[in-house]
Amino acid sequence: MKTFSDIIQETLRYGFSDGPQVNEARIKDWINEAQRMVATNTVAKEFEAAGTIALTVGKYKYTLPTDFDMIESVFDPESTLRLRPVDLQTFDANNIEVQGIPTVYTLWAKEIWVYPLPSTAHNLELRYIKEPKTLVAGTDVPDMDPDYLHLLVDYALARAYRSEDDLEAANQHQATFDRDVGKYAAAVQHRIIDKPQQLLGTWSH
């Protein structure tokens, strides 16, 4: 099972036909919906992307990449600082006329805002989780790890059974989807070995 067509056919093998509640068009939508959910909930390398934000002196609002889904970090190579995320209310409390080296950022709609106002024109490094490409053609291949493509089938089946009011089967496939998304996320976390180690009992008091 490698392609969009493979995943659709595997879903249909559970006995669904082209009807008003469950049909190929809806299954395609559910599969794409599933992949977007997996991307957001696993932060897997398959969905990681990097870009640049070209700072302009005195400007604090910048457009995010069109495929942006979730931010991982913003790094300033010139100052060697990693910008700190703040909520919109905290950002608005700053004096937006101040210029200097940006140290914080916030997100609004499809923009990223930085503070202080940049005093020099240079690039920030943006690391983010991208929205997976929408699968359209039968030969399209999902962005995610091939070992976890069964997740897309389970999610589509959960939605299909729910559409036909078979809540028992729907809940079963939803539980399988949720469990295996957790396994996918855990496997991703195990890629990172250069991290602080907490001793047992450190926070027990």
Please describe what this structure looks like.
It is a single chain. With 205 residues, the protein is an alpha+beta fold. The chain folds into two domains: 4-44 and 144-189, no CATH class; 48-130, no CATH class. The chain contains five helices and ten strands. The chain has helices at residues 4-12, 24-42, 88-92, 150-163, 167-189, and strands at 48-54, 61-63, 68-76, 81-82, 84-85, 99-100, 104-108, 111-115, 117-118, 123-130. The strands form three sheets. The protein has a four-stranded antiparallel β-sheet, with no helix packed on it. α4 (150-163) runs antiparallel to α5 (167-189). The longest helix has 23 residues, at 167-189. The chain is elongated.
Computed CA radius of gyration, to the nearest angstrom:
22 Å
The rounded distance between the terminal residues' Cα atoms is 50 Å
- Counted up, domains total 2
The overall average pLDDT, rounded, is: 90
Q: Which regions are unreliable across 5 or more consecutive residues at pLDDT < 50? A: 195-205
| Main sheet characteristics | 4 strands, antiparallel
DSSP strand (E) fraction? 15-25%
State the helical fraction. 25-40%
Coarse structural class: alpha+beta
User: What is the tally of helical segments?
Assistant: 5
Give the strand tally: 10
The main sheet orders its strands as 1-10-3-4
Which shape, going by the Cα principal axes?
elongated
Order of helices and strands: HHEEEEEHEEEEEHH
